[in-house]
Every structure is written in C-alpha cells, then in structure tokens.
Amino acid sequence: MADVPKDLMQEIKRLEEMFAVDTAKLKSITEHFVKELAKGLSVEGGSIPMNPTWCMAFPTGYETGTFLALDMGGTNLRVCEIILTDEKSEFDIIQSKYRMPEELKSGTSDELWEYIADCLQQFVESHHGTKDLEKLNLGFTFSYPATQDYIDHGVLQRWTKGFDIDGVEGHNVVPMFEAAIAKRGVPIKLTALINDTTGTLIASAYTDTKMKIGCIFGTGCNAAYMENCGSIPKLAHMNLPPDTPMAINCEWGAFDNEHKVLPRTPYDIIIDKDSPRPGQQAFEKMIAGLYLGELFRLVLVDLHDNKEVHIFEGQNIDKLRKAYTLDSSFLSMVEEDPFENLSETGDLFQNKLGIIATHSELELIRRLAELIGTRAARLSSCGVAAIATKKGYETCHVGADGSVFNKYPHFKQRGAQALREILDWAPKKNSKEEDPIEILAAEDGSGVGAALIAALTLKRVKEGNMAGILHPENFK
C-alpha cells in the first residue's frame, strides 16, 4: 500500500483500529457470554432466550420413514421429502426451492401462510399426484425465536431477518399454518416445529457422534446444543429427570442487547437505529450476512462525505447511498479478487454502483472488506467458545451451516484462529493436526434435521412417552 495517499492511509489505519478485536477482548466477550447463557436458562431469563425445543435425544442413525420438511428461511422457502433408509445414517432427498417474495416480509399474516401452503400443495401434488394420498408427517423449520411448550407448538417472540408482519408476534404460529393447509386439503400433519439450528445439531449428530453444537452463520446467526434438564431452572416445575437431555435453541443473536461488551462502532449503531427492531439482536447485527454489506456501504458513504478524505471525488454515488443495496456476497467478491491491481473489484464497483474507483481507493475497499469479514468471524467464535466452556467440552465437533460460513472467504480459518486464542490451545505441531474443537460444515439441518426430529418425536409417541412433548389435543 506504499502508493496509497496519506489521507486514505490514515483512514485505513483508523478503520483497522475500529474493527480489530484482540485476544483479550475476545476472552472478555466469551466470559460474559457464558454468564448470559446460564441467565437465559434461569427462571428470570436474560437477553438470550435459551428456548427449550422438546427435542430430547440425539439420533441413533437407525431412524426410518418418509417425512416432509419445510424450511422457512430469510430468503427462500424450501420443501423436501426425506426418506430415512434402513442403512445407518443414510437418506434420500427430493427438494424444491421457492423464492420468498420481499413484499411478503411486511405483508399480512394470511398472505404469508397462504403462500407457504401453496408451495407445499405444489410440491406434494407434483411428487404424489392428487389422489388417495396418505397423511405425510412434516417437520417445519421455523427459524425465528419462538417459545415452545410442546414440540408441535411455537409462539413467535419477535421477527428477525427483516420480517415485520403484524399479528404474528406473541401468537402460536402452528394453528395459522394448519388453517392454511386445511383450506387446501393437503394431507399433511405437522409433527414437529423446529429451529434450523436445532435441525443442524441433530442432522450433524446423525452422521458424526462427536457433534455437540449446531450453529448457523447466514442471513442471521444462532446456535443449539444439548443441555441436561437439571441445569435448566426454568423447567424445574416439570419435574423432568435431571439427566434428561433437552436441545436448547439459544437464539444468541440477542447476546449483549445491553451493549456491555461488544465493540460497536458508530456504523453498528446506525444499523441498529435504522433496523425494524432497534435495541434487539445486537450480536447478530455485527456478524450476520444481512448486515455485513450494509456496514461496508455505511463506511464508504461516510468516507465520501468527509471533506478531509478524498474518495470517489466528483462521482455520483447515489446508488451507494441506497440502504442495503450491497449484501455479503458483494464483500465476498471483493475479498476473492485474485488480481494484484484489484481489477475485478473495480469492475464490480463500476457495474453495480456506477463508480470508477482509483487503485488507491480499491486498496482501501479491499482492506475494509477484510476488516468487516474478519471481525464477524472472530466474534462468531465467542459464542462457540462460550457453549464449550459452559458444558466443559475440551474436544468436540461443531456443525455450522449458513451462507456466510459456507461461502464467505476465510470465515472458517479466521473463526478457528479466534477459537485458538480464546481457549489458549498450544500451537499445532503440523498442518494436519486437528484442533480440539473443530467447526465443520454441517449436514442439512433444515431438511434432514427436521425429518429426524419428526422421526424422534413419533418414536417417543409410540413408546407412550409424550408428556410435555406434543400438544394434549393431539391425543384426544
């Protein structure tokens, strides 16, 4: 960067200081995180909801049957049919994806459920025809914070991922979904409502017995793990045996909503203030795919508007001024640019934003993308380290899914390096040596995981062990 002008070099240094998270800071965040996990399990609760899921076993690998899985994410709706075969940990899958129209995210509740029911009807009819259909058991991946009193019940606590539909928060979403399905006469029985993170945990444990934690790093961020019921004070009134496992959906995007430890920049504060839910999802807004491109955009607009910094001079930046015009895939492309002269980044800015950037500006752009991506990866490891510390896991596998984990350049390596720093591991003897806690690409949680949880639920029902698991009305 020897040829970068002094004013831009000063800005790069300022941004480096602003976005850097050193080892000591990572450790203090993790320490606070451990306390917040425990608080969420207590009767009083805390920022992190720590929702019991009523998924109370890991799979054995020998589950069988045919199940539907419905995954309602932030961008797509996916419908799968999963056949769990007689072979250990083997399955067949058929699936279709449907784009979630943007207008649905702020439309009416009826429009949302009718759209989902239409997609399910299309899928079932295209794979099974329309006659003499047997009822299909469905695992519904509803990836939003929900309170579950049973596994086929879920009261939406709050919308995330840019959704803002009236009349759903504070209500059980299952009757709404079932009414839309019944209207179309589709033969589907909702057996389990799950979170994608719980599904990720269960699907990954299906093929890997070392799997202890499931994480999502995508449009949003979250984690799930198995807790003993004896360590969940808010379930004490149910008198469950203390050593009974219970999958906990942490909903850790809400970590540090009180702003005690996370190193927020002025740009993070703007993102929070302008979001549909100010004051919520503090952790998620610093590490999730929905916000990384917006952080990057806000910094560039601020630099352009700062009279002492000369960037994009004399150019029209109206396209760059549009909120959320850049997503995390834009940052990925900047970080992946293999050319020394950053020609691909230059083309990207010209084609997408109508901005012709100088080489010095491209250097700043590349460094800014690295800083935002690195901070996200390093902060994400604090949550993993916190669960491992709380549970006393010295070695385990963590299954991670989501677009940021799978597609963002260097996210895995940067996260692994941060874990090493937080947990004080000795340096590796060679490159092939595994870390004690490895974060690996997860199995398909919202598809296979949903099917497995439906299968585990039916197994409990057959064993007559359904107290607190399924809504009592289902046994009339």
TrEMBL record:
UniProt KW keywords: ATP-binding, Glycolysis, Kinase, Nucleotide-binding, Transferase
Residue ranges annotated for the Hexokinase C-terminal domain, each copy included: 212-456
Pathway(s) where this gene product acts: Carbohydrate metabolism; hexose metabolism; Carbohydrate degradation; glycolysis; D-glyceraldehyde 3-phosphate and glycerone phosphate from D-glucose: step 1/4
CDD domains: ASKHA_NBD_HK1-2_fungi
InterPro entries hit by this protein: ATPase_NBD, Hexokinase, Hexokinase_BS, Hexokinase_C, Hexokinase_N
Catalytic reaction annotation: D-fructose + ATP = D-fructose 6-phosphate + ADP + H(+); a D-hexose + ATP = a D-hexose 6-phosphate + ADP + H(+)
The organism's taxonomic lineage, starting at the top: Eukaryota, Fungi, Dikarya, Ascomycota, Pezizomycotina
PANTHER family (alphabetical): HEXOKINASE, HEXOKINASE TYPE 1-RELATED
Name of the protein in its database record: Phosphotransferase
Any one GO biological process: glycolytic process
One GO CC term, this protein: cytosol
Species annotation: Hyaloscypha bicolor E
One of the Pfam families matching this protein, by short name: Hexokinase_1
Family: Belongs to the hexokinase family.
Molecular function terms from GO: ATP binding; D-glucose binding; fructokinase activity; glucokinase activity; mannokinase activity
Stretch forming the signal peptide: none
All residue ranges annotated as the Hexokinase N-terminal domain in the record: 12-206
EC top class, as a word: transferase
EC number: 2.7.1.-
